[in-house]
């Protein structure tokens, strides 16, 4: 009976888009990143870090910059002195295009997220028959297509938004070479925006200001976990040379904390910050539906993404807790279903800004509890799965 249950469960998971959590080189979900010290969060009680600047070369970027990342106050801030709100698994959607897949982490795609103020896009990359694809855990479960196509769309958005600095974080799930990623970045054309640190192999407390990055038109920062850094492709950075992360496999709203999870070699968040690493605060929860099977927690998302600081699980409370423990604010934050909250409010508070020029999608994303899609009809599959899981657990 256990083997039959296992086989049936696998089949239903494949049909419904639910992901079983794999134990890969980075543990259970092989895909997240970033968090570093930055600050100027007067509302969070953090002393502002001294902005560091780098000389900017002339380019075709706007020379008269009125705002950087939706605020004039950010133009003179060093890159590592800004908090960037990020969309976790940004290409894996729970919408009509995926039949409202239960594995989806976002209601809106990357360019909509960018319009709404998201400035960190994270995704998992797998090798699909020799082509790098954005796949959720497995390309059999949820395949968002070739990485190059996705990058081309992000580039198009950057072409049309010249005053914005964007960060991409990719999980190198199949341990592909940095040259494989370079081919895709160059093929999409987005590599022209790639920022190149003077020494990309080690963490640094000296980053240019957003204004300088925009003026030089080198305004895309790319971290990949994990690659071997190569000076041949200096715009592709190994994430764990520069960023440390808090735990990500959270199954309850009381599970969020500020301890260092990766890279373990740093020992503690304090050590990582002292070494110049930027903190990435993972703030998304999963629901465990049976052993080894978990899905993004959609039910509690309005609590999870709230800017409030009073309720366990609130994004605002988690951020303030980390600020107190680290003595600096997170540089990167990753959330699911970014439009709820809306999550961007917490980043704005930490940055001490009132943003302009965004397109609001707050409240538009609908919780897909039925699983019904516009062009697909997976509701029966999802309902059958729930019924089957209940039966399977009763039999074990």
TrEMBL record:
Pfam family of the protein (one): PI-PLC_X
Cited InterPro entries: PI-PLC_domain, PLC-like_Pdiesterase_TIM-brl
Keywords from the named record: Signal
Signal peptide: 1-20
SUPFAM superfamilies attached to this UniProt entry: PLC-like phosphodiesterases
Gene Ontology terms describing biological process: lipid metabolic process
GO molecular function term, any single one: phosphoric diester hydrolase activity
Superkingdom of origin: Eukaryota
Record-given protein name: PLC-like phosphodiesterase
Organism name: Neurospora tetraspora
């Amino acid at each position: 009976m256990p083997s039959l249950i296992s086989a049936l469960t696998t089949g239903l998971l494949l049909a419904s888009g639910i992901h079983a959590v794999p134990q890969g080189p980075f543990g259970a979900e092989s895909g997240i990143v970033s968090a570093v010290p930055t600050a100027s969060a007067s509302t969070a009680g953090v002393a502002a870090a001294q902005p560091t600047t780098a000389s900017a070369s002339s380019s075709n970027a706007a020379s008269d910059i009125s705002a950087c990342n939706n605020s004039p106050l950010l133009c003179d801030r060093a890159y590592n002195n800004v908090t960037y709100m990020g969309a976790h698994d940004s290409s894996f959607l729970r919408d009509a295009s995926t039949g409202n897949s239960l594995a989806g982490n976002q209601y809106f795609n990357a360019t909509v997220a960018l319009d709404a103020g998201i400035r960190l896009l994270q995704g998992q990359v797998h090798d699909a028959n020799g082509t790098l694809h954005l796949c959720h855990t497995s390309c059999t479960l949820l395949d968002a297509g070739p990485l190059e196509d996705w990058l081309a769309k992000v580039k198009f958005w950057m072409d049309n938004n010249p005053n914005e600095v964007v960060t991409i974080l990719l999980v190198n799930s199949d341990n592909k070479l940095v040259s494989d990623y370079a081919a895709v970045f160059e093929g999409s054309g987005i590599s022209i925006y790639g920022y190149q640190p003077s020494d990309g192999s080690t963490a640094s407390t000296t980053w240019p200001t957003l204004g300088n990055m925009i003026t030089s038109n080198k305004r895309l920062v790319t971290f990949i976990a994990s690659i071997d850094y190569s000076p041949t492709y200096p715009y592709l950075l190994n994430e764990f040379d520069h960023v440390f992360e808090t735990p990500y496999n959270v199954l309850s709203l009381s599970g969020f904390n500020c301890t260092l999870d990766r890279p373990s070699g740093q020992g503690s968040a304090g050590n990582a910050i002292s070494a110049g690493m930027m903190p990435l605060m993972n703030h998304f929860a999963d629901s465990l539906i049976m052993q080894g099977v978990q899905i993004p927690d959609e039910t509690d998302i309005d609590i999870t993404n709230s800017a409030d600081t009073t309720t366990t699980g609130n994004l605002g409370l988690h951020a303030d807790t980390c600020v107190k423990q680290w003595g600096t604010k997170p540089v990167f934050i990753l959330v699911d279903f970014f439009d709820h909250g809306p999550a961007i409010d917490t980043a704005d508070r930490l940055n001490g800004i009132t943003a302009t020029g965004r397109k609001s999608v707050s409240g538009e994303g609908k919780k897909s509890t039925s699983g019904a899609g516009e062009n697909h009809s997976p509701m029966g599959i999802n309902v059958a799965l729930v019924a089957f899981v209940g039966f399977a657990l009763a039999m074990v």
